[in-house]
Amino acid sequence: MFVKLLEAIFGCHHSRYSFPVTMRGAGRRTQAASLTGTYVACLECGKEFPYDWQEMRVITSPQRHRERVAALATKHAA
I need a surface site. Which of 20, 38, 51, 57 has the fewest CB within 10 A? Predict the structure, then answer.
């Protein structure tokens, strides 16, 4: 808990990202790429984040992304 508090205060703010990278084929995917197949990396600390090409933004909440995809699937089915 103490480490998370220090990281929140002094940690990386993830303000600069790499260009989105899309994983192709049946190769191993990183945890960040497992949600959409595309990820970006923070240029300061190297942490990877899922990226959504449809909205062209970094996904901060995987749960919110799943809800959005479900809503779009329902909309297209109607």
Answer: 57
